[in-house]
Write a structure and sequence with these properties.
Oligomer: single chain
Radius of gyration: 20 Å
Mean pLDDT: 95
Distance between the termini: 62 Å
CATH architecture of the largest domain: 3-Layer(aba) Sandwich
Largest sheet: 7 strands, mixed
Shape: globular
Helix content: 40-55%
Bound molecules: S-adenosylmethionine
CATH superfamily of the largest domain: Vaccinia Virus protein VP39
CATH class of the largest domain: Alpha Beta
Structural class: alpha/beta
């Protein structure tokens, strides 16, 4: 097959270098099949910076601290949607109703929040569970990617992102854009007020998260990490949960083997295996 003509020279070792750097920075373990994806995403950075080769880009990365964030932002995969894996939100609604907190709000950490659809789905679930726009719940939403967090904090989406939601939900929780915002929706202020966004790299040795959490959503991010990183993260997260707290994983992420840490209580829903977690 004829070699594809590329704008920038891209050698096998360039791809390996990207894999290594991304792994070190984010824990993301890119498979060999991602070499074309890496090229097209980083070619945009080279163009934006006016660089003519991948080697020049690697030197630029070494010299400019701020480029690291762009590098990571360019290479993350941010696929998400409102009420993705809806059964999790049904289970959460039940949990919220059955586990009121006498002292202070129920605390949820959404640890790979992407563009915000997941934390806003959590906020909607909480509002519906308590039948109030001001439920006793706080949601902390984080991601490594600052680009997606900016989108998330704005809470503005194209109409087709909310297409599959019921009319009642759309009416209650979204405002339709007019004029220049035609074709867009914005989440209601009360939804935004329930969620605090901040950047957290799950690979960092310390997270700015208080222990005693009620719920952790960590969905569809562990799949990018290798087994040992997954185990370490799971262990650290479970320690932040109180004894009856819930850990939600993505549909293809299984921790059934980690019986010393968690026990399965629903479809990819786990509870800490006592002891090792905070008391309630
Ligand atoms: C496929 S999205 C999943 C979004 C959402 N949790 C869901 O299930 O719909 C994966 C997210 O994980 C984030 N991510 C990847 N590596 C990360 C890391 N080391 N720390 C925090 N977030 C990370 C990516 O930026 C991306 O937004």
């Amino acid at each position: 097959m004829a070699e594809e003509v590329r704008e920038f020279q891209y050698r096998a070792e360039d791809f390996q270098q990207v894999r290594r750097l991304l792994y070190e920075r984010s824990g993301i373990s890119l498979s060999e099949s991602k070499d074309q994806m890496v090229y097209s995403r980083l070619a945009r950075r080279l163009r934006a910076l006016g660089l003519d080769s991948f080697s020049a880009y690697f030197s630029h990365l070494q010299q400019r601290d701020d480029e690291w964030q762009e590098f990571v932002n360019a290479l993350t995969t941010n696929l998400t949607s409102f009420f993705r894996e809806n059964h999790h939100f049904e289970a959460l609604a039940e949990y919220l109703q059955q586990h009121p907190r006498p002292n202070g709000p129920i605390r949820i950490w959404c640890s790979a929040a992407s563009t915000g659809e997941e934390p806003y789905s959590l906020a909607i679930t909480a509002m519906e569970a308590f039948n109030s726009l001001h439920p006793p719940v706080r949601i902390m939403a984080s991601d490594i990617d600052t680009g997606v967090l900016r989108t998330a904090a704005k809470g503005v989406y194209p109409l087709n992102r909310v297409e599959q939601l019921s009319i009642a939900r759309k009416k209650r929780f979204f405002l339709r854009g007019k004029g220049r915002q035609e074709g867009m929706v914005r989440v209601r202020d009360e939804l935004r007020d329930l969620v605090d966004f901040q950047q957290i790299n799950l690979l960092d040795p310390r997270w700015p998260v208080e222990p005693g959490l009620d719920v952790i959503f960590c969905r569809n991010v562990m799949i990018y990490f290798d087994k040992s990183t997954q185990q370490q993260l799971l262990e650290r997260m479970v320690k932040l949960l109180h004894r009856h707290g819930l850990f939600f994983a993505g549909h293809s992420e299984s921790f059934v083997q980690a019986t010393h840490l968690v026990r399965l209580i629903g479809r990819t829903i786990y509870q800490p295996a006592y002891p090792g977690s905070c008391p309630p």
